[in-house]
Amino acid sequence: MYPFEDGQTFPRNHWYIAACSHELGRALFERTILEERLVFYRKEDGTPVALDGICPHRNLPMAQGMLEGDAVRCGYHGFRFEADGRCTNIPSQSAVPASFATRSYPVLERWQWIWVWMGDPAQADPALLPDMDVAGLGAPGWRADSNGVVHLKSRFSLLIDNLMDLSHIAFVHVKTIGKQLTEAAEVTEENGRVHVIRCTPDQPAEGFHRFLHPRCPGPVDLTTRSDFLGPGLICAGGPYSVMSGTGEPVGRLNFVHGLTPETRHSTHYFPAVSRDFRLDDDGLSQALLGKERSVLAEDIAALEQVEIVVQRQGDTRRELSVLADAGAIRVRRRLIAMMKAELQGAPDLS
Ligand code: FES
Ligand SMILES: [Fe+2]
Predict the structure, then answer these.
(1) How many CA atoms lie within 13 A of 272 on its CB side?
(2) Is the pTM of this model over 0.90?
(3) Measuring from atom 1 of ligand 1, which residue has the nearest CA?
(4) Which of 8, 49, 107, 125 could bond to 83 as cystine, CB 3.0-4.6 Å?
(5) Does one domain contain both 100 and 161?
(6) Which amino acid residue places its CA nearest to atom 4 of ligand 1?
(7) pLDDT of 347 strictly over 60
Protein backbone atom coordinates (compact mmCIF):
# COMPACT_ATOMS: atom_id res chain seq x y z
CA MET A 1 0.00 0.00 0.00
CA TYR A 2 1.32 3.46 -0.89
CA PRO A 3 4.04 4.45 -0.15
CA PHE A 4 5.12 0.92 0.70
CA GLU A 5 5.13 -2.28 -1.28
CA ASP A 6 2.01 -4.26 -2.07
CA GLY A 7 0.44 -5.76 1.03
CA GLN A 8 2.54 -3.69 3.46
CA THR A 9 0.66 -1.41 5.86
CA PHE A 10 2.52 -0.88 9.14
CA PRO A 11 5.17 -2.63 11.24
CA ARG A 12 3.69 -4.49 14.22
CA ASN A 13 6.64 -5.42 16.42
CA HIS A 14 6.94 -2.00 18.03
CA TRP A 15 5.58 -0.07 20.96
CA TYR A 16 2.85 2.35 19.92
CA ILE A 17 1.06 4.91 22.07
CA ALA A 18 -2.42 3.58 22.83
CA ALA A 19 -3.75 6.39 25.00
CA CYS A 20 -2.90 9.32 27.23
CA SER A 21 -2.56 8.19 30.84
CA HIS A 22 -5.58 10.22 31.89
CA GLU A 23 -7.82 8.43 29.39
CA LEU A 24 -7.54 5.15 31.31
CA GLY A 25 -9.24 4.52 34.62
CA ARG A 26 -11.72 2.15 36.21
CA ALA A 27 -14.01 2.20 33.19
CA LEU A 28 -13.73 0.18 29.99
CA PHE A 29 -12.21 2.21 27.19
CA GLU A 30 -12.13 1.09 23.57
CA ARG A 31 -9.69 2.11 20.85
CA THR A 32 -8.81 0.59 17.48
CA ILE A 33 -5.07 0.24 16.92
CA LEU A 34 -3.44 -1.29 13.83
CA GLU A 35 -6.93 -2.33 12.72
CA GLU A 36 -7.58 -4.31 15.89
CA ARG A 37 -10.27 -3.31 18.35
CA LEU A 38 -8.87 -3.25 21.89
CA VAL A 39 -10.40 -2.63 25.29
CA PHE A 40 -8.36 -0.92 28.00
CA TYR A 41 -8.75 -0.35 31.74
CA ARG A 42 -6.74 -0.07 34.91
CA LYS A 43 -6.51 -2.79 37.53
CA GLU A 44 -7.39 -1.83 41.10
CA ASP A 45 -3.71 -1.04 41.73
CA GLY A 46 -3.67 1.28 38.69
CA THR A 47 -1.76 -1.02 36.31
CA PRO A 48 -3.02 -0.61 32.72
CA VAL A 49 -4.50 -3.61 30.89
CA ALA A 50 -5.22 -4.16 27.18
CA LEU A 51 -7.39 -7.03 25.94
CA ASP A 52 -8.97 -7.97 22.65
CA GLY A 53 -11.91 -5.60 22.29
CA ILE A 54 -14.23 -8.31 20.94
CA CYS A 55 -15.49 -11.18 23.08
CA PRO A 56 -14.25 -14.52 21.68
CA HIS A 57 -17.61 -16.16 22.51
CA ARG A 58 -20.10 -14.37 20.24
CA ASN A 59 -18.37 -11.12 19.38
CA LEU A 60 -19.94 -8.47 21.58
CA PRO A 61 -17.56 -5.52 22.04
CA MET A 62 -15.99 -5.98 25.47
CA ALA A 63 -16.35 -2.26 26.21
CA GLN A 64 -20.05 -2.99 26.71
CA GLY A 65 -19.24 -5.30 29.61
CA MET A 66 -18.27 -4.43 33.16
CA LEU A 67 -15.23 -4.52 35.42
CA GLU A 68 -15.14 -6.96 38.34
CA GLY A 69 -12.02 -6.26 40.35
CA ASP A 70 -9.13 -6.76 37.93
CA ALA A 71 -11.24 -8.80 35.50
CA VAL A 72 -13.79 -7.87 32.87
CA ARG A 73 -17.15 -9.58 32.40
CA CYS A 74 -18.72 -9.60 28.95
CA GLY A 75 -22.08 -7.86 28.70
CA TYR A 76 -23.70 -10.57 26.53
CA HIS A 77 -23.45 -14.02 28.20
CA GLY A 78 -21.25 -12.95 31.09
CA PHE A 79 -17.96 -14.77 30.45
CA ARG A 80 -15.32 -13.35 32.79
CA PHE A 81 -11.77 -12.69 31.55
CA GLU A 82 -8.82 -11.89 33.80
CA ALA A 83 -6.27 -9.19 33.02
CA ASP A 84 -3.98 -11.82 31.46
CA GLY A 85 -6.81 -12.95 29.16
CA ARG A 86 -7.75 -16.23 30.90
CA CYS A 87 -11.45 -17.00 31.01
CA THR A 88 -12.29 -17.89 34.64
CA ASN A 89 -16.08 -17.93 34.77
CA ILE A 90 -18.92 -18.94 32.45
CA PRO A 91 -22.26 -18.30 34.18
CA SER A 92 -24.15 -20.96 32.18
CA GLN A 93 -21.86 -23.86 33.22
CA SER A 94 -19.64 -24.80 36.11
CA ALA A 95 -16.51 -25.80 34.22
CA VAL A 96 -14.30 -23.48 32.18
CA PRO A 97 -12.16 -25.23 29.54
CA ALA A 98 -8.53 -24.52 30.37
CA SER A 99 -7.81 -23.26 26.87
CA PHE A 100 -10.49 -20.56 26.95
CA ALA A 101 -8.89 -17.13 26.80
CA THR A 102 -8.99 -13.86 25.01
CA ARG A 103 -5.90 -12.09 23.72
CA SER A 104 -4.09 -9.81 26.13
CA TYR A 105 -1.57 -7.28 24.86
CA PRO A 106 1.64 -6.15 26.57
CA VAL A 107 1.21 -2.59 27.88
CA LEU A 108 3.48 -0.11 29.61
CA GLU A 109 2.96 3.33 31.07
CA ARG A 110 5.80 5.74 30.36
CA TRP A 111 5.75 9.52 30.74
CA GLN A 112 2.06 10.48 30.22
CA TRP A 113 1.32 7.77 27.71
CA ILE A 114 0.11 4.15 27.72
CA TRP A 115 2.09 2.09 25.21
CA VAL A 116 0.90 -1.16 23.64
CA TRP A 117 2.76 -3.89 21.74
CA MET A 118 0.66 -5.13 18.83
CA GLY A 119 3.04 -7.72 17.41
CA ASP A 120 4.55 -10.96 18.72
CA PRO A 121 4.21 -10.71 22.54
CA ALA A 122 7.42 -12.69 23.00
CA GLN A 123 9.31 -9.75 21.52
CA ALA A 124 7.67 -7.06 23.70
CA ASP A 125 10.80 -5.82 25.44
CA PRO A 126 10.48 -2.50 27.34
CA ALA A 127 14.03 -1.74 26.18
CA LEU A 128 12.59 -1.33 22.66
CA LEU A 129 10.53 1.72 23.65
CA PRO A 130 11.59 4.74 21.61
CA ASP A 131 14.10 6.92 23.43
CA MET A 132 11.91 9.46 25.18
CA ASP A 133 14.84 11.20 26.83
CA VAL A 134 15.97 12.44 23.41
CA ALA A 135 12.54 14.00 23.01
CA GLY A 136 12.71 15.57 26.49
CA LEU A 137 9.75 13.51 27.79
CA GLY A 138 10.32 12.91 31.48
CA ALA A 139 14.04 13.65 31.15
CA PRO A 140 15.86 15.57 33.89
CA GLY A 141 16.16 19.28 33.10
CA TRP A 142 13.20 19.24 30.72
CA ARG A 143 9.56 20.19 30.97
CA ALA A 144 7.12 18.33 28.76
CA ASP A 145 3.41 18.95 28.25
CA SER A 146 0.99 16.62 26.51
CA ASN A 147 -1.34 18.05 23.89
CA GLY A 148 -3.86 15.21 24.16
CA VAL A 149 -4.86 13.07 21.21
CA VAL A 150 -6.12 14.10 17.78
CA HIS A 151 -7.77 11.91 15.16
CA LEU A 152 -6.28 12.10 11.67
CA LYS A 153 -8.04 10.72 8.61
CA SER A 154 -4.84 9.82 6.84
CA ARG A 155 -2.46 6.85 6.90
CA PHE A 156 0.41 7.22 9.36
CA SER A 157 3.06 7.19 6.64
CA LEU A 158 1.77 10.50 5.27
CA LEU A 159 2.31 12.04 8.69
CA ILE A 160 5.84 10.62 8.77
CA ASP A 161 6.56 12.13 5.33
CA ASN A 162 5.27 15.45 6.63
CA LEU A 163 7.35 15.44 9.82
CA MET A 164 10.58 14.33 8.16
CA ASP A 165 10.44 17.10 5.55
CA LEU A 166 9.97 20.44 7.24
CA SER A 167 10.36 22.33 3.96
CA HIS A 168 6.55 22.39 3.97
CA ILE A 169 6.60 24.89 6.83
CA ALA A 170 7.02 27.90 4.53
CA PHE A 171 3.81 26.94 2.71
CA VAL A 172 1.46 24.86 4.85
CA HIS A 173 2.29 26.95 7.92
CA VAL A 174 2.75 30.35 6.33
CA LYS A 175 0.07 31.82 8.62
CA THR A 176 1.24 30.22 11.89
CA ILE A 177 5.03 29.92 11.55
CA GLY A 178 5.90 31.89 8.43
CA LYS A 179 8.97 31.75 6.31
CA GLN A 180 11.36 29.08 7.51
CA LEU A 181 14.89 27.93 7.04
CA THR A 182 15.75 26.82 3.55
CA GLU A 183 19.31 25.65 4.13
CA ALA A 184 20.22 22.18 2.95
CA ALA A 185 19.60 19.57 5.57
CA GLU A 186 22.05 16.97 6.81
CA VAL A 187 20.51 13.48 6.91
CA THR A 188 22.06 10.81 9.12
CA GLU A 189 21.00 7.37 10.25
CA GLU A 190 22.17 5.30 13.23
CA ASN A 191 20.66 2.41 15.21
CA GLY A 192 17.43 2.58 13.26
CA ARG A 193 16.94 6.28 13.88
CA VAL A 194 16.95 8.86 11.11
CA HIS A 195 17.89 12.48 11.75
CA VAL A 196 17.34 15.49 9.49
CA ILE A 197 19.23 18.51 10.80
CA ARG A 198 19.24 22.07 9.49
CA CYS A 199 21.44 24.75 11.01
CA THR A 200 21.11 28.47 10.29
CA PRO A 201 24.08 30.34 11.79
CA ASP A 202 24.38 33.89 12.99
CA GLN A 203 20.78 34.98 13.24
CA PRO A 204 19.58 38.14 15.02
CA ALA A 205 17.59 37.52 18.21
CA GLU A 206 14.14 38.08 16.76
CA GLY A 207 10.94 36.32 15.75
CA PHE A 208 10.09 33.01 17.42
CA HIS A 209 13.53 32.81 19.06
CA ARG A 210 12.89 36.17 20.73
CA PHE A 211 9.46 35.03 21.90
CA LEU A 212 11.09 32.02 23.56
CA HIS A 213 14.14 33.82 24.92
CA PRO A 214 13.25 37.50 25.37
CA ARG A 215 16.50 38.36 27.16
CA CYS A 216 18.86 36.68 24.72
CA PRO A 217 20.96 39.39 23.02
CA GLY A 218 21.90 37.24 20.02
CA PRO A 219 23.18 36.64 17.47
CA VAL A 220 22.35 32.95 17.62
CA ASP A 221 22.83 29.79 15.62
CA LEU A 222 19.44 28.11 15.16
CA THR A 223 19.00 24.42 14.48
CA THR A 224 15.84 22.59 13.51
CA ARG A 225 15.72 18.83 13.40
CA SER A 226 13.42 15.92 12.67
CA ASP A 227 14.35 12.80 14.60
CA PHE A 228 12.65 9.55 13.64
CA LEU A 229 12.91 7.61 16.91
CA GLY A 230 10.72 4.70 15.81
CA PRO A 231 7.52 4.13 13.83
CA GLY A 232 5.47 5.55 16.72
CA LEU A 233 7.53 8.60 17.73
CA ILE A 234 9.05 11.52 15.84
CA CYS A 235 10.62 14.51 17.52
CA ALA A 236 10.62 17.75 15.54
CA GLY A 237 13.10 19.91 17.39
CA GLY A 238 13.41 23.56 16.90
CA PRO A 239 14.71 25.89 17.40
CA TYR A 240 17.69 24.63 19.31
CA SER A 241 19.44 27.95 19.98
CA VAL A 242 23.07 28.56 20.89
CA MET A 243 25.01 31.83 21.00
CA SER A 244 26.93 32.36 17.78
CA GLY A 245 30.67 32.13 18.21
CA THR A 246 30.74 30.69 21.73
CA GLY A 247 28.15 27.95 21.22
CA GLU A 248 26.75 28.69 24.69
CA PRO A 249 23.36 26.93 24.94
CA VAL A 250 20.30 29.17 25.05
CA GLY A 251 17.51 26.60 24.93
CA ARG A 252 16.00 23.62 23.15
CA LEU A 253 12.38 23.21 22.14
CA ASN A 254 10.75 20.06 20.76
CA PHE A 255 7.42 19.48 19.13
CA VAL A 256 6.97 15.78 19.77
CA HIS A 257 4.67 13.63 17.66
CA GLY A 258 3.37 10.25 18.77
CA LEU A 259 1.69 8.48 15.90
CA THR A 260 -0.27 5.26 16.05
CA PRO A 261 -2.01 3.74 13.05
CA GLU A 262 -5.71 3.29 13.75
CA THR A 263 -6.56 1.70 10.40
CA ARG A 264 -4.66 1.62 7.14
CA HIS A 265 -6.28 5.00 6.36
CA SER A 266 -6.35 6.75 9.75
CA THR A 267 -4.06 7.63 12.65
CA HIS A 268 -4.21 8.50 16.33
CA TYR A 269 -1.98 11.52 16.77
CA PHE A 270 -0.47 12.27 20.20
CA PRO A 271 1.31 15.64 20.11
CA ALA A 272 3.38 17.08 22.95
CA VAL A 273 5.83 19.93 23.54
CA SER A 274 9.06 19.77 25.56
CA ARG A 275 11.72 22.35 26.41
CA ASP A 276 14.78 22.75 28.60
CA PHE A 277 14.30 26.43 29.53
CA ARG A 278 11.71 28.49 31.46
CA LEU A 279 10.59 25.25 33.08
CA ASP A 280 8.22 26.88 35.59
CA ASP A 281 6.51 29.14 33.07
CA ASP A 282 2.97 27.73 32.77
CA GLY A 283 1.95 30.59 30.47
CA LEU A 284 4.69 29.63 28.01
CA SER A 285 3.49 26.00 28.09
CA GLN A 286 -0.05 27.08 27.28
CA ALA A 287 1.15 29.34 24.48
CA LEU A 288 3.27 26.57 22.95
CA LEU A 289 0.50 23.98 23.20
CA GLY A 290 -1.88 26.43 21.54
CA LYS A 291 0.63 27.12 18.80
CA GLU A 292 1.14 23.40 18.25
CA ARG A 293 -2.61 22.87 17.92
CA SER A 294 -2.93 25.63 15.28
CA VAL A 295 0.03 24.24 13.33
CA LEU A 296 -1.36 20.71 13.54
CA ALA A 297 -4.71 21.80 12.17
CA GLU A 298 -2.91 23.00 9.04
CA ASP A 299 -1.01 19.72 8.63
CA ILE A 300 -4.16 17.69 9.20
CA ALA A 301 -6.09 19.66 6.56
CA ALA A 302 -3.32 18.98 4.01
CA LEU A 303 -2.78 15.31 4.92
CA GLU A 304 -6.47 14.45 4.79
CA GLN A 305 -6.56 15.86 1.25
CA VAL A 306 -3.52 13.80 0.28
CA GLU A 307 -5.12 10.67 1.77
CA ILE A 308 -8.17 11.10 -0.45
CA VAL A 309 -5.93 11.38 -3.50
CA VAL A 310 -3.72 8.39 -2.71
CA GLN A 311 -6.73 6.24 -1.86
CA ARG A 312 -8.12 6.97 -5.30
CA GLN A 313 -4.98 6.43 -7.29
CA GLY A 314 -2.75 4.36 -5.04
CA ASP A 315 0.83 4.23 -6.22
CA THR A 316 0.03 4.37 -9.90
CA ARG A 317 1.10 8.00 -10.17
CA ARG A 318 4.79 8.75 -10.41
CA GLU A 319 6.17 10.97 -7.65
CA LEU A 320 8.85 13.60 -8.07
CA SER A 321 11.30 13.51 -5.19
CA VAL A 322 13.81 16.23 -4.31
CA LEU A 323 16.68 16.70 -1.86
CA ALA A 324 14.30 17.75 0.92
CA ASP A 325 12.65 14.32 0.72
CA ALA A 326 15.86 12.50 1.64
CA GLY A 327 14.99 11.99 5.34
CA ALA A 328 11.44 10.83 4.61
CA ILE A 329 12.66 8.42 1.96
CA ARG A 330 15.20 6.93 4.40
CA VAL A 331 12.40 6.38 6.89
CA ARG A 332 10.20 4.75 4.23
CA ARG A 333 13.05 2.35 3.50
CA ARG A 334 13.45 1.53 7.17
CA LEU A 335 9.75 0.87 7.57
CA ILE A 336 9.75 -1.38 4.51
CA ALA A 337 12.72 -3.30 5.95
CA MET A 338 10.92 -3.70 9.29
CA MET A 339 7.78 -5.01 7.61
CA LYS A 340 9.76 -7.42 5.43
CA ALA A 341 11.62 -8.74 8.47
CA GLU A 342 8.33 -9.34 10.29
CA LEU A 343 6.89 -11.14 7.30
CA GLN A 344 9.87 -13.44 7.17
CA GLY A 345 9.78 -14.01 10.91
CA ALA A 346 13.31 -12.65 11.16
CA PRO A 347 14.45 -10.70 14.20
CA ASP A 348 13.42 -7.05 14.07
CA LEU A 349 16.04 -4.74 12.56
CA SER A 350 15.48 -1.75 14.79
S1 FES B 1 -20.49 -12.70 23.56
FE2 FES B 1 -19.35 -12.45 25.35
S3 FES B 1 -20.04 -13.95 26.67
FE4 FES B 1 -21.17 -14.32 24.86
FE1 LIG C 1 3.69 20.73 9.57
Answers:
(1) 25
(2) yes
(3) 58
(4) 49
(5) no
(6) 77
(7) no
> C-alpha angle 155/176/293, rounded to 5°?
50
Residues 99 and 199 in one domain: no
Boundary (domain end) residue, out of 123, 149, 170:
123
Q: What is the pLDDT of residue 175?
A: 87
Q: Per the structure, how many domains does the chain have?
A: 2
**Are 171 and 270 members of one domain?**
yes
Pocket of ligand 1 (CB under 6 A): 55, 57-58, 60, 74, 76-79
> Measured in angstroms, how far is the CA atom of residue 179 from the centroid of ligand 2?
13
Question: Binning pLDDT at 50, 70 and 90, where does residue 178 land?
Answer: confident
Q: Is 224 exposed, middle or buried (0-12, 13-18, 19+ CB in 10 A)?
A: buried
Cα–Cα distance measured from residue 347 to residue 350, given in angstroms and rounded to the nearest whole number: 9
| Centre of ligand 1 from the C-alpha of residue 59, in Å | 6
Distance 141 CA to ligand 2 centre (A): 27
Considering the domain architecture, whether residues 75 and 173 belong to the same structural domain is answered as no
Whether residue 109 sits in one domain with residue 230:
no
| Ligand number nearest to the C-alpha of 64 | 1
54, 55, 62: which to mutate for ligand 1, most atoms within 8 A of CB? Answer: 55
Say whether both 96 and 204 belong to one domain.
no
- Examine the domain organization and report whether 225 and 337 are in the same domain: yes
Give the three-state DSSP class for 335.
helix
Per residue in 218-247, pLDDT tens? Answer: 899 999 999 999 999 999 988 999 999 999
Ligand 2 geometric centre to CA of 296 (Å): 6
CA distances from 248 to 131, 207, 216, 221, 281 (A): 25, 20, 11, 10, 22
Ligand located closest to 302 CA: 2
Q: Domain boundary at 123, 153, 178, which?
A: 123
Reported as a single tens digit per residue, the pLDDT across 258-268 is: 999 999 999 99
Determine the distance separating the centroid of ligand 1 and the alpha carbon of 115, expressed in angstroms.
27
CATH number of the CATH domain containing 81? 2.102.10.10
pLDDT at position 314 is 73
Provide CB contacts within 8 A for 2, sequence distance 6+: 155, 157, 310, 314, 315
- Domain ranges, residue 19: 15-123
Nearest CA to ligand 1 atom 3: 77
Domain assignment of residue 4, yes or no: no
